[in-house]
Every structure is written in structure tokens, then in C-alpha cells.
């Protein structure tokens, strides 16, 4: 017997009230329709966008295919070379639900509410959990596949009522894991879709992989999380290494250290904004630091951070007034941010038209240096305090 939309229920160990809810996005054409079966906290339902967005066309890159692998079940593969910054798939979740544990009936009903074809797609997905752990097969699929998403992007729920939600995607979820991924996902709460996109160049025949864990965590922690949540031993080049000789252990320690460093680089190393204000620092200090970050991220396969690093470098060259170098790094920034942050990418596009004219900070450091040299030749010593708040490209 089904549970109806008006019935409320709770998760194990909680008194919070939830409801089943079906989101139907209707477009003008018959196949412009998306049905998402959800478990939502009762107080979240009134916060959903009203009216709901029109469905975005699903997108599948012509060179992306689901193929069977030897040991990992199905996976996604590139049939042709795909450059960094390309949209690979755009997809609605079939299911949206919170992380808590519900009864078998709730999960079964959640799956049963999908249109038949969508339900078939869902039931063919990987389930790494045993029947004892997850009596409902739908729950097993959820725990093997769900990707985190934000349903309250404007933060309208009080802090104590916030919770994590996940979405299950019959196509995007075919992507297997690597600690050096070549693709990432981005959830768009306004359109209810997730975009899967390349973060580095992918070669024809290569598997398209995302990361299921924070890649900045140490190797053993990553292995433990993957084993506990997804029931496999990661065999990526950073995990599948010998770990008995002192040399091998030193190599693992170095990789752990570099990954942790990369994960906090932008918070622990001086960036463009501070450097720009401080003429006492060498002109190349931030550029060298971020070139090092780029090279480490290449070594560790942490390409997902490179958009931040290339942007810092581009901005430094703008303050130095180096046109060729700025153009080179601004183009890289656009390529690596256009899916993740289109507004930022558009800003660089605009600057690129004529950087010296379009950028307030263009050549600022060069000009200030020349000025201070002139002043010191004249024997004038003064502290230059300049308000750069309006010139730094991006708001704080
Ligand atoms: C989200 S699914 C990925 C798609 C799945 N391979 C399929 O056939 O639908 C997660 C499951 O895929 C498998 N998997 C993912 N990445 C793997 C990897 N690097 N090595 C081995 N198995 C992996 C594990 O069984 C895991 O529980």
C-alpha cells in the first residue's frame, strides 16, 4: 500500500516530519517533462521555487558513452578527445532525499512514484549495499549513488533545521571514482539540474571519472571512506601504491602533504589581492606560488582547483600590465570557469576585449613602482596608501 503526499513520517532517531513529494516540471513540448520523486522535510516544501522552473533540455555530449568495465561495473567513457571545461551531461535527479534513514516502505514508494521508464533506469543502477543493511533496493541504490545538493540556497531555513540532501541520477551516477578525477558535477538549484563537466583534457578512450571523497584527505582516509560507503578499494595511481618500504611510505606521506597543502592553498598563501596592495613584496611572488600550486595539482591529479590558481596568475599579470601573459592566463581562466562560474568567465571575456581599457587595475603595480622610484630619486619618502577596493576585479 502506498504512502500518500499528505502523510508525514519521520527518519530513524528523529522527530522531524517528512513527506513524499513529486516535483513535475512541465515544458511546452510533451517530452519537455521532468518528474523528480522526493522525500522532503515538511517545512522545506513551501520554500521550493514557485513557480517551478521550466525543464532544461537534458544534454548528453555526443562523445560520452556508458560502457561496461572489467572490475567496476558500468562506467562513462570518452569516445573522442574532450577538452577541459566542456559540458558532458546535464541531467535532472530522479530522486531527491535527505541523508536520514527511513522505513523500507518509504523508499519503495519513493521509487514507485517515478514514471515507468525512469523507474527502470533507476532500478538498473549500482547497489553496493546488502539486503540486511538496506532492506529496500531503492535505499541501496540511493546510498551507493546519491550526490549532495542544496535545496535552500538562499539559507531561508533556520540553522538548526538545515540538513544535507542528495540526488540520484541514472546517467551521471555511472561515473566511477578516481582520486585524480577528470570531471566534476555542479548542482543548479534554480533549474533543478546537475551539470557534469570536464576539468582537464580527456583523451579518446579514457574513462570519465569524478571523485567520491575530498581528494585533499590523506590516502588511508580516502581508502577507508570509499570502502565504508561504496564497498571498493580504490586503485587509482595515488592509492594503488606499495606501502611497506620506507621509500614507499615517504612517497605516500609526500602525496598526503601535497594534497592537504593544495586543499588550503588559497587560504594559506598570499594571493593577488594582498600582493597588489603591498609594493614591498616581489612582483613574481604570487605568480611563482600559484605556478607551484598548478604543478602540484598536476602531479596529484587535483585539477578541480586549477581554475582558482590560473585566475590568481591572470590577475597578477593584469596588475603588472603584461598583455601577452594576461591574455594567456585569462583564456585559461575562462576555459576552466565557464561551466562552474559563468559570471566570472564572462567578466574575463569582457576584460579580454581590451584589458588596459577595461581593467581599472591594469598595470597598477608598474605605475606605482615607477612613481615610488621617481619619489625616492627626489628624496621624498612617504607611505603610499591607496584604496584599491574598487579596483581588484572581484568583490571581497
Ligand atoms: C555511483 S556507482 C558508479 C557506477 C557503477 N559502476 C555502475 O555500474 O553503475 C558506485 C559504484 O561503482 C563501483 N566503483 C566506482 N568507482 C570504482 C573504482 N574506482 N573502483 C572499483 N569500483 C568502483 C563501486 O561498486 C561503487 O559502489
TrEMBL record:
It comes from the Eukaryota. SMART domains: SET. InterPro entries: SET_dom, SET_dom_sf, SET_domain_protein. It comes from Agrocybe pediades. Residues 62-213 form the SET domain. This is SET domain-containing protein. Coiled coil: none annotated. It holds the Pfam family SET.
Amino acid at each position: 500500500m502506498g504512502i500518500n503526499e499528505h502523510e508525514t513520517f519521520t527518519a530513524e532517531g528523529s522527530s522531524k516530519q517528512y513527506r513524499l513529494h513529486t516535483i513535475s516540471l512541465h515544458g511546452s513540448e510533451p517530452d519537455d517533462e521532468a518528474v523528480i520523486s522526493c522525500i522532503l522535510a515538511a517545512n522545506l516544501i513551501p520554500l521550493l521555487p514557485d513557480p517551478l522552473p521550466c525543464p532544461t533540455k537534458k544534454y548528453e555530449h555526443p562523445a560520452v558513452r556508458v560502457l561496461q568495465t572489467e572490475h567496476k561495473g558500468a562506467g562513462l567513457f570518452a569516445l573522442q578527445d574532450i577538452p577541459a571545461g566542456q559540458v558532458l551531461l546535464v541531467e535532472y535527479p530522479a530522486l531527491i532525499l535527505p541523508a536520514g534513514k527511513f522505513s523500507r516502505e518509504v523508499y519503495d514508494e519513493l521509487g514507485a512514484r517515478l514514471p515507468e521508464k525512469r523507474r527502470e533506469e533507476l532500478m538498473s543502477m549500482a547497489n553496493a549495499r546488502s539486503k540486511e543493511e538496506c532492506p529496500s533496493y531503492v535505499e541501496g541504490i540511493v546510498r551507493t549513488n546519491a550526490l549532495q545538493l542544496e535545496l535552500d540556497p538562499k539559507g531561508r531555513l533556520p540553522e538548526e533545521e538545515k540538513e544535507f540532501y542528495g540526488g540520484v541520477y541514472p546517467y551521471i551516477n555511472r561515473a566511477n571514482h578516481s582520486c585524480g578525477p577528470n570531471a566534476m558535477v555542479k548542482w543548479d538549484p534554480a533549474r533543478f539540474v546537475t551539470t557534469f563537466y570536464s576539468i582537464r583534457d580527456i583523451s579518446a578512450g579514457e574513462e570519465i571519472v569524478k571523485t567520491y571523497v575530498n581528494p585533499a584527505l590523506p590516502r588511508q582516509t580516502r581508502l577507508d571512506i570509499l570502502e565504508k560507503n561504496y564497498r571498493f578499494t580504490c586503485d587509482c595511481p595515488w592509492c594503488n601504491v606499495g606501502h611497506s618500504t620506507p621509500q614507499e611510505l615517504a612517497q605516500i606521506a609526500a602525496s598526503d602533504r601535497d594534497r592537504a597543502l593544495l586543499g588550503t592553498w588559497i587560504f594559506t598563501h598570499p594571493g593577488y589581492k594582498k600582493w597588489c596592495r603591498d609594493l614591498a613584496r616581489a612582483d613574481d611572488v604570487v605568480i611563482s606560488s600559484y605556478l607551484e600550486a598548478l604543478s602540484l595539482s598536476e602531479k596529484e591529479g587535483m585539477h578541480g582547483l586549477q581554475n582558482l590558481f590560473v585566475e590568481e596568475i591572470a590577475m597578477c599579470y593584469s596588475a603588472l600590465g603584461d598583455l601577452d601573459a594576461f591574455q594567456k592566463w585569462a583564456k585559461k581562466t575562462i576555459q576552466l570557469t565557464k561551466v562552474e562560474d559563468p559570471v566570472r568567465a564572462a567578466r574575463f571575456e569582457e576584460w579580454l576585449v581590451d584589458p588596459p581599457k577595461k581593467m581599472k587595475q591594469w598595470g597598477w603595480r608598474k605605475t606605482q613602482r615607477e612613481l615610488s622610484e621617481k619619489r625616492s630619486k627626489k628624496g621624498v619618502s612617504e607611505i603610499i596608501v591607496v584604496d584599491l577596493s574598487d579596483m581588484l576585479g572581484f568583490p571581497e
